[in-house]
Amino acid sequence: MRIFITGCKGQLGRTLNDVLAGEVLAGCDLPELDIVDRAAIGAAIAGFAPDVVIHAAAWTDVDGCARDPERAYRVNGLGTQNVALACAQVGAPMVYISTNEVFDGEAAEPYREWDPIHPINPYGRSKAAGEWFVRHLLTRFYIVRTAWLYAPGGRNFPHRIIQLADERGALRVVTDEVGNPTYAPDLAQALAALIRTGAYGVYHLTNAGHCSRYDFAREILRITGREQVPVEPIPLAEFQRASAPPPFAPLANTAGAALGIALRPWEEALAEFLGQ
Length: 276
Fold this sequence. Notes:
single chain; 276 residues; alpha/beta; Rossmann fold; six-stranded parallel beta sheet; 10 helices
C-alpha cells in the first residue's frame, strides 16, 4: 500500500512511519512543505499517487490557537481543505486526525461518534472546520477523533509533569478536565488496522478508559516513583490559560470496536511508555 502522511515529523507522524514501515511511504512537514500552500501539497500528493493519505498535520498548540484564531483556521481548516482537494484529485481516501475538542464538554457520559459537535474554543472550531471540508469534498474518508496524545520523544503531558515535579517539588493540576490519555503507538496501530478495512466513516480511537488531568498526573508520578510529590487538585477556573478546554470530553469507541479495533486501557499504555 502506498501511504502519504502529512505532519510526518510530528508525534503521530513519526510513530506512523515506524508502524507502517512495511508499506511504501512518503510524507511532508514544515519547513519543507506547508499544507496551507494548495499548489505545493497538491503536487506532492499527486506526484506520489497514494492509495491513502493520512492527514496528521495540524497546529495543535491549543493556547496558541486561542491567541491567533485566524492562523488556527488557516492551518487546521483551510490546510485540511487543501489536502482533501488533493485526495479528490488523485482518487485517494483520506484519514483526518481530529480531536475530542470538537465537543463542548457538557455531556454526562463519553461522546459517541454520532453525537453532534459543538466546539467552544478556536482550536476545536478549526478542527471542526477541517471535518466539514472532509465530509463535503470527499466520499471516501475516515474522520478519527482522538485525545490527549503523547509519544516517545515528543513534548507532552507526561514529560511536563515529570519535569515540573522535579523542578518545583509540588504540583497544582486541574481535577475537572476529563479525557482519554492516548499513546501514539497504540493509535498508530489502530489506524493501520482501520485503513485496511475500507469501512469509511467517523471513529473515536483512544486508549480505553478516561480520567481527569489530576488523576493522569498522579498516575505518572506513581509509576515513576514520585508518589511523595504533593499534588493539589484545582478547578479549571483557577488554571490560567488562553484556551478554555471542554471540561468533560472523553470519547467512546463504538464504531471501531464494532470492527474489532480497540486500544488497551490508558493505564497499561502509560506504564509501557514511562517504562521506556
